[in-house]
Amino acid sequence: LVKVSAELETPDAGIDLGWEEVSWDPFSFKRQSSERIEVQGIGLGGEETVRVFTTQAKWDAVAHKLEQLGDFQPEIVVETSGVLAIDPRDEVAIATINESADPKLVTVSDGLDLPVIAAFRLLASRLDPRHPILLKDVLIPSADPQTDFLDTLLRASANLGSLICDGIGDAVLIQGEQAPGQSLRLAYNVLQASGARIFKTDYVACPSCGRTLFNLQTTTQRIRAATGHLKGVRIAVMGCIVNGPGEMADADFGYVGGAPGKINLYVGKEPVKFNIPEGEAVERLVDLIKEHGRWFEAPARIAAETTA
Ligand code: SF4
């Protein structure tokens, strides 16, 4: 995928993207296989999880309250990480890095006249895959503290999410959001949503439609309140049994509308409890999670937040 994407950057590439020409399997995912390195004492690349970078200024701003950040910890400071920032069109720079005996952490330089996704795809296509890549949400760091956060969130999600789903990236850096805590939460949430790094309960909810058999929003909120501390557990909330089970992806447990006012519960893709009255279905879901050994009590801090 990255190879073809990169070649498309060249107008004269003359690539025919007819289906029979596609050389990759669009139904499988494989992360680019970089080599593991250590940066500031933290493993990065290889089998390591995708790391979260921050700037020195943001690190300094949160250093006194790291405990309050909970799961949203900054891990590596970009300025002292030794990352090599290059223009992916610079063949000399690419060749120099590819010739190096040791794996290098590489990223795209700020301020380039390239879209973020194209720039990183091009970098990934030209770089020897053993070199880990640091992704950025934007190539021009925000200088405006009044930037609409929704725009920042959508841009970061589209850019980082697309690249991570391509299998590109060993670390991420949010540059579009100035607020230190907000930028860290955004980084972790993009990683969670793209399945790259699960640090909290993962929910898959259907968009709802005319077939939905319960109030999807309020029900999902109740399920989140009961299970939001179950790090790594995937729960699907589906409005009906017509299409819901097929849309649950690889959820561990499913809460699915079976009939008006009745809920069916699933373990994986297998229905195990039927026609539970809606009023008690969240409790039964919790029981099911306990039966399968995936339950633990919420830490005091989270429990207090949930009941506040
Ligand atoms: S799972 Fe059922 S209720 Fe939800 S969007 Fe699909 S068809 Fe509609």
Keywords summarizing the entry:
alpha/beta; Sulfite Reductase Hemoprotein, domain 1; 4-stranded parallel β-sheet; 9 helices; 32% helix; disordered N terminus; binds iron/sulfur cluster
Care to describe what's here?
With 308 residues, the protein is of the alpha/beta class. It has 2 domains: 192 residues, no CATH class; 106 residues, Sulfite Reductase Hemoprotein, domain 1 (2-Layer Sandwich), CATH 3.30.413.10. It is built from 9 helices and 13 strands. It has a 5-stranded mixed beta sheet, with helices on one face. A 4-stranded parallel beta sheet has the order 4-3-8-7. The termini are far apart. The N terminus is likely disordered. Bound molecules: iron/sulfur cluster (SF4). The site of iron/sulfur cluster (SF4) has 13 residues, from loops. Iron/sulfur cluster binds next to loops.
C-alpha Rg (nearest Å) = 22 Å
Question: Please, how many helices?
Answer: 9
Give the N-to-C terminal Cα separation: 47 Å
Main beta sheet, described? 5 strands, mixed
How many beta-strand elements? 13
Give the fraction of residues assigned to helices: 25-40%
The overall number of domains is 2
Strand order of the largest sheet: 9-10-11-12-13
The helix/strand order is: HEEEHEEHEHEHEHEHEEEEHH
Provide the residue-averaged pLDDT: 89
- Proportion in β-strands: 15-25%
Counting helices, strands and paired strands, the structural category is alpha/beta
